Amino acid sequence: MKKRLLSCIIISIFILSGCQNISDQFLSYTDTKTLDEFKIDNDLSTQTNDFFAKDLALISIDETPDTDAELTSQSTLLVNVTDNEVVYQNNVYEQLFPASLTKLLTALVVLKNAELTDSVTISYNASHIQESGAKTCGFKEGDVISLDALLHCLLVYSGNDAGIAIAEHVGGSEEAFAEMMNDEAASIGATHSNFVNSHGLHDELHYTTAYDLYLIFNELIQSDKFLSIINMSSFTAIYQDYTGKEKQNVFKTTDWFLDGNAEAPEGVTILGGKTGTTYKAGNCLILLSQNTEGTKYISVILKAESNDLIYAQMSHLLSKTLGN
């Protein structure tokens, strides 16, 4: 009798779960802490199961945040990715606007689903971004450029037109590519996010968390291609313009640590990262760094009040990697 009652309860749960939104059916962060205790065969994808089998730094939603008077940004996270240990965390599950840190997930979708040798023709949509102040590479409708070059322009220079061109080529449309982004985020456990575009220009429905960004970035740093791109201080794009002539443009990094405008603490080497800034997102920065012992760290700061402050705070945060 008890077994029959239990079966009815389980069936009822599955039926009711079908009425939920898709996002409601994703496993929460707290679920990941105990998932390895359950040995249940279900419809979760192999990719999702692989994710939960990985060694990752886990932070309970109820865990008391760390405090440091010099770290005043809205959200801050520092993870030792060599040993999968959290060094510092504060407000890492608050849903915030990511600005151009969005482009990290765009890059992850590209690296997993597309051929970098593809030629991409710039559309009217990609070449006519209307938002005031949006950073663009200046591509014109009809320009032809490799997907590889666009990926570099996206990550090094943070070109929003590169983001749209990538989305249209890989996904068929911006909307379809955003679906691919959300599917990819869910597959690696970044379930407290929602992405509606490939570039990060502001949208009220476009948000993520510092912890989700850590998961996305941690996935990306497994790629040698990605690591080589984010370490560049500049990139020269060679492509065919809309008239058929070869064109070259040099795009400089937006990362002050890489261009010499900011200094990391002595003993810390910046291996690369991504910047992001909009009025509502504030100043955002994620980095991969390494100390003199070879230990690698992912550091995330979201919603700092200015560029000067975010680099000062990031330097202070990275000093915690030295064990002083």
Describe this structure in words.
- By secondary structure, this protein is of the alpha+beta class.
- It has a domain of 156 residues: 3-Layer(aba) Sandwich (Beta-lactamase).
- The protein is 35% helix and 19% strand.
- The protein has twelve helices and nine strands.
- The strands form three sheets. The protein has a five-stranded antiparallel sheet with strand order 2-1-9-8-7, sandwiched between helices. The chain has a two-stranded antiparallel ribbon with strand order 3-4.
Characteristics:
single chain, alpha+beta, Beta-lactamase, five-stranded antiparallel β-sheet, two-stranded antiparallel ribbon, globular, disordered N terminus
Concise overview:
The relative contact order is 0.16. 35% of the residues lie in helices and 19% in strands.
Secondary structure blueprint with pairings:
Layout: H1 2-17, H2 29-32, H3 46-53, E1 75-80, E2 85-90, H4 102-113, E3 119-121, H5 124-127, E4 144-146, H6 147-157, H7 160-171, H8 174-187, H9 210-220, H10 224-230, E5 234-240, E6 246-252, H11 256-259, E7 268-278, E8 282-291, E9 296-304, H12 307-318
Antiparallel strand pairs: 1-2, 1-9, 3-4, 5-6, 7-8, 8-9
Helix pairs in contact: 4-7, 4-8, 4-9, 6-7, 7-8
Q: What would the average pLDDT be, to the nearest integer?
A: 86
CATH architecture type of one domain: 3-Layer(aba) Sandwich
Mind telling me the C-alpha Rg?
A: 21 Å
Give me the CATH fold name of one domain: Beta-lactamase
What top-tier CATH class of one domain fits best? Alpha Beta
Helix content: 25-40%
Measured between the Cα atoms of the first and last residue, the distance is 62 Å
**Share of β-strand residues:** 15-25%
SSE-based structural type: alpha+beta
> How many strands appear in the DSSP assignment?
9
Large-scale geometry: globular
